[in-house]
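Please decode residue identities from the backbone states below.
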């Protein structure tokens, strides 16, 4: 049975997670076991449910309850479904809901670095990538183009921020990820590391050596400044994407898509 609750009191504590708590408050760094994130749109929410995330409550435009949202809501009978017309929800949340639906969900414990690397062949590592839009786009490319996991350094934005989830189309739930202190920490698990950087001693991204590696980690740096010098120095190779028309670099999300396509699987004929 659906637990539908009509919104009449904007100040209700149960609505704080949608209307008044910041992303940092939802993350709850001091007590990560109590952390919550917001998934938006039926497709993204469905991917989160399929990945085993537990819903806390829904916020749904009234006309969608018995429409596009219904199959998802039936999977979660008993979970509170807060609802109102679109103009009320927009006033409450400050923006229009994508496909008329939000879901607050509990975070899960992240895998250890060892667990993430187990059986992985291709890993993407993001060093201090802060823009949630870029994080989401990189995850979507990583999932689509052959990465087995994503590792973020502690200066990176959290992939379960609402905008990252939305831009990724829920692929943050489909590909394993975790945080680490040092991008080159992955070497102890048998990975060759390549830094995406603008260096004269770089090898081309289509170099056969790269494709032939059994385990390869592709390290991408923050927007603007790129990778730290010590990270580049510690890598096995520096790689660059050949450019034309005097363009010196690509946005980190665009560069990741090119790199993952070229390097996303071991080529036996390399």
């Amino acid at each position: 049975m659906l637990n539908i609750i009509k919104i009449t009191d904007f100040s209700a504590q149960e609505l704080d997670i949608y209307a008044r708590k910041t992303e940092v408050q939802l993350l709850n760094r001091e007590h990560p076991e109590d952390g919550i994130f917001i998934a938006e749109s039926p497709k993204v929410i469905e991917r989160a449910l399929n990945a085993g995330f537990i819903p806390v409550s829904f916020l749904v435009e009234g006309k969608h309850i018995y429409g596009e949202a219904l199959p998802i809501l039936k999977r979660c009978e008993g979970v509170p479904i807060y609802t109102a017309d679109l103009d009320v929800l927009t006033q409450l949340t400050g923006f229009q809901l994508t496909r008329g639906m939000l879901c607050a969900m509990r975070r899960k414990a992240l895998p250890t670095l060892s667990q993430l690397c187990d059986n992985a062949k291709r890993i993407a590592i993001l060093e201090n990538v802060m823009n949630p839009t870029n994080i989401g786009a990189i995850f979507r490319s990583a999932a689509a183009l052959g990465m087995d996991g994503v590792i973020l350094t502690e200066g990176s934005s959290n992939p379960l921020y609402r905008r990252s989830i939305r831009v990724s189309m829920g692929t943050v739930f489909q590909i394993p990820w975790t945080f680490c202190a040092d991008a080159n920490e992955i070497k102890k698990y048998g990975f060759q590391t390549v830094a995406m950087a603008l260096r004269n001693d770089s090898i081309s991204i289509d170099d056969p050596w790269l494709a032939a590696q059994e385990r390869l980690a592709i390290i991408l740096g923050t927007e603007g400044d790129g990778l730290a010098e010590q990270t580049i120095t510690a890598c096995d190779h520096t790689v660059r994407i050949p450019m034309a028309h005097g363009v010196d670099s690509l946005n980190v999300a665009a560069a990741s898509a090119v790199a993952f396509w070229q390097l996303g699987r071991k080529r036996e004929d390399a």
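Observation: The chain has eleven helices and twelve strands.
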